[in-house]
Specification:
alpha+beta, about 230 residues
Length: about 230
Amino acid sequence: MATTLADLRAQCRAFLADSAIWPDAKLDRFINDGIRAYSNELPRRMRQVRLLSTGVQAYDLPGGHGFLRLVGVECPAGQDPPSFLRRARSWSEFYADGKTYIVQPPLDSVPAASDTAVGQLVIAREVTTGESAVVTYDAVHRLPSADTDIVTVPEAHHEAIIAFVDFRAHWERESNETHTAASSTLILSQLGENGRRAWNRWREVMRRLAPVDEWDGEPIDWGGIGL
């Protein structure tokens, strides 16, 4: 059965030595922070079919603000063997070769608090209505907000989220004690040591779960495309 936010929260609470002091809302925030941290190293691999239109070369990148990196662009889709575009490293390379694509960042034209703009995938070849492209990309795993929301992090990797929540709980305890005048140096030292152990535990779990091979996608280097 799929794991829900309520299921994962219960798993996290069971591993906390002082589980009773953490309200659900705070644990949910820790879980989502853990999912973001996990996604930076082990993102969710996604595929999206984009319908193409004659005369249109620029298409919004998939995944919204959860988009992390572009892995590949099959265009046009449905060829046998599949036909993949190559990422151009500059605009001159883009214009010189019809089998490339390039990525443009969004325009910084609205306040960050209300910014819903995303970057665009720009295809060099001329496309026609009726064609499609399959865009493969990496994204942040789903951030659940309701008890019944499904957690997309694989169940076998939940220990990474649990380890991160444990670290965040120790970190918050230390932070709270630091701002309490009655806290002794010994208490703060012990809390700090516990926090470091929890952090190291999370890093050990992530190193063990990380794949042996390199990513076949690349982070976007905005400065390398002449913008």
